[in-house]
Amino acid sequence: MYTNKAYLNNSLIDIKDKTKPLIVTSCGTYKLYTRSVFYTLRPKGRIDFQLLYIVSGKAHFHFNGKETIVHAGHMVLYRPKEPQQYEYYAEDQTEVYWVHFTGSNVTNLLRSYGLTNDKKVFSCGSNLEYQQLFRAMINELQMCRDSYQEILEMYLRQIFIKLQRYFKTSLKIDNAHAVEEIDKAASFFNEHYNEPINIDEYAKEHHVSTSWFIRNFKVCTGLHLCSIFFPSESTMQRYCFKIPAIILLKFPVLLVMIILFILAVFSKKPKECLLLNIAKI
Predict the structure, then answer these.
(1) Tens digits of residue pLDDT in 169-194
(2) Cβ–Cβ < 8 Å for 177, 132
(3) What is the pLDDT of residues 115-124, one digit of tens each?
(4) 49-77, pLDDT tens digit by residue?
(5) Which runs of consecutive H residues, i.e. helices, occur in 51-207?
(6) Which letter, b or e, does each residue of 199-223 get, where b requires 16 or more Cβ atoms within 10 Å of its Cβ?
(7) Cβ distance 36 to 100 under 8 Å?
(8) Which of 79, 134, 162, 183 is most buried as measured by Cβ atoms within 10 A of its Cβ?
(9) 37 phi and psi angles, rounded to 5 deg
């Protein structure tokens, strides 16, 4: 299992601190490889807040004795003293980021960003910026450089703001079914990033039109599906994935270099077609 985590003052003890409105006390990430399962059981919960982000795969949570499977592109929010029981399985290829936080005004802050008391498990979309913010928090808490606590608060607030914007955007979707379908698609693309995927066929298999799928994917995730085609027989109108869009999203120079390299390599092989997916806001 890969893990990277950090704790305020290197303390593993739950912290309740009301000296400031918002304080990040610990954060980290887990990804299972060889370890078959990772359990967490806290019958009495914790005295702080916890936010978990499922990046890939899925996680198994238990609320009031009932299991809830949470897929990639979702977050789970635990409040103080709420019982916590969840597990990750290696076979699910689960990758999770988490953060614990406390403060004198956390409840009001969460409510102001749309994280009301009824939001426990919610869709947040698949966005590389969430991962970047979590990694930045881990790094700051590990390095403890000047004013790191203020930076940690800013990063966490950015996550809250992105969630708020996502919630408002999701209201524009036709219905709840659309949100569910796009969430499933994002999870599927994450898990099968190294396989060619035909968007037309995917949409047909899920009984929606390609235009409906692309439009709602944009609204739900903030990303637009585009394709660069290297033509061969009857492939011009296909939508396919080969490289995960999320990797190239923030590196346009690298993307151009890859495209030029592939053009040079494959220009002499007309019957071979390399299809790249590029998601661009």
Answers:
(1) 766 555 556 766 777 787 777 777 67
(2) no
(3) 999 899 999 8
(4) 999 999 999 999 999 999 999 999 999 99
(5) 106-112, 128-143, 148-170, 176-191, 199-205
(6) beebbeeeebebeebebbbbbbbbb
(7) no
(8) 134
(9) -155, 150
Which residues have CB under 8 Å from 42's CB, separation 6+? Answer: 83, 84, 85
**How far are the Cα atoms of 46, 153, 161 from residue 165, in angstroms, in the given order?**
28, 18, 6
Tokens 């635990």, located at residue: 78
User: Can you tell me the distance from the alpha carbon of 94 to that of 71, in angstroms, rounded to the nearest whole number?
Assistant: 9
Strands 58-63, 49-56: parallel, antiparallel or unpaired by DSSP? unpaired
| Amino acid found at 87 | E
Q: 119: which residues sit within 8 A by CB, 6+ positions away?
A: 77
- Residue that is written with structure tokens 């996502």 in the block: 166
pLDDT in tens, 232-257: 333 334 434 444 554 455 555 556 66
Distance CA 262, CA 22 (A): 48
Nearest one of 201, 192, 266, 280 to 230, comparing CA atoms: 266
Single-letter amino acid code for the residue at 231: P
The pLDDT tens digits of the residues spanning 118-166 come to 899 999 887 889 999 999 999 999 999 999 999 999 999 999 999 998 8
User: Residue 101's closest CA among 38, 7, 165?
Assistant: 7
